[in-house]
Design brief:
11 helices
């Protein structure tokens, strides 16, 4: 356990970098969950499996079709979004009027099916995905070595999260999305196709998981379990930030990644539980979450 008197700045900033990278993935996945729950009131427990699907799609595209990383970064989120649209249209929509527990159980079942299929096809061992040549290497800073691909993950995540927040909160399209889910009868009276808005919103939310999967493929081994290991942490982050809070999901995702990184340096034994400890404290003090609104 490190103390304030024997801090190794090189190791400390290294852990902060790892925390920011993890936080970037947390933010993307939590943002997708917050969009789907905040706008559609659907608890999507398949988000982790779709994150895994995005990583596998990038790997299969490279392995079987010779698709480069950059094309995967564009095509895989669209493909995962299309799968999400099909899910919403034929599986989620029929139970849309039921209790939230039904959507949770349904999407959890979908996640188990996807994980089981990929375990059967590829086994449980991880598969490697190379870092693109343009992002190999790194920059040596006075206090740490910054790999180019790690920096790219952080920048890309920040751009996508900020752009998504701006679109939903500050544009006319975002206003239509919010109004269409809060008062669908009124929007339909104005000629807005609310079911289409719901379907596209769900697709966009799971498309963010696909994007996170492509970004994660060169960093982590591509395996069927990679989604289940991160999902519970992401749900805890969504609860901390406030269920349905778009900005809260982004800020809390990045913040909890940094907290986790600091904990790994100062007290490694608690690094796997610190996020859940924060969740418990937040729920006791502010049950709606840090950025959530009381029901």
């Amino acid at each position: 356990m490190a103390t304030l008197f024997d801090i190794n700045l090189f190791a400390l900033f290294g852990q902060l970098l790892i925390g920011l990278i993890n936080g970037s993935f947390y933010a993307l996945l939590a943002l997708g969950l917050a969009i789907i729950f905040g706008l559609l009131k659907i608890i999507n427990f398949s988000q982790g499996a779709l994150y895994m699907l995005g990583a596998f799609a990038a790997w299969m595209g490279m392995q079987y079709l010779g698709i480069s990383y950059w094309w995967s970064l564009l095509l895989v989120p669209i493909a995962v979004a299309v799968i999400g649209i099909i899910m919403e249209r034929f599986l989620v929509r029929p139970i849309a009027g039921e209790d939230h527990l039904y959507s949770l159980l349904l999407t959890f079942g979908i996640a188990l099916v996807l994980q089981g299929l990929f375990t059967h096809w590829y086994g449980s061992s991880g598969l490697s995905y190379p870092i693109p040549a343009e992002l190999k290497g790194g920059t040596r800073l006075p206090f740490m070595y910054l790999p180019n691909y790690r920096a790219w993950i952080i920048v890309c995540s920040l751009l996508v999260c900020t752009g998504t927040w701006f679109m939903i909160e500050k544009t006319k399209l975002g206003a239509y999305l919010r109004a269409g889910t809060e008062n669908p009868q009124l929007m339909q009276a104005f000629g807005i196709n609310v079911p289409l808005i719901v379907t596209l919103t769900f697709g966009f939310g799971v498309g963010l998981a696909g994007l996170a999967g492509v970004l994660a493929a060169p960093v982590y081994s591509v395996s069927p379990e990679m989604g289940s290991s991160i999902l519970i942490v992401v749900f805890a982050i969504v609860v901390i930030g406030g269920m349905g809070s778009i900005g809260g999901a982004i800020i809390t995702g990045l913040g909890m990644g940094v907290v986790e990184g600091l904990t790994k340096y100062f007290y490694p034994e608690a690094s796997n539980t610190v996020i859940f400890l924060v969740m418990v404290i937040v729920l006791l003090v502010k049950p709606a979450g840090l950025f959530g609104k009381e029901a």
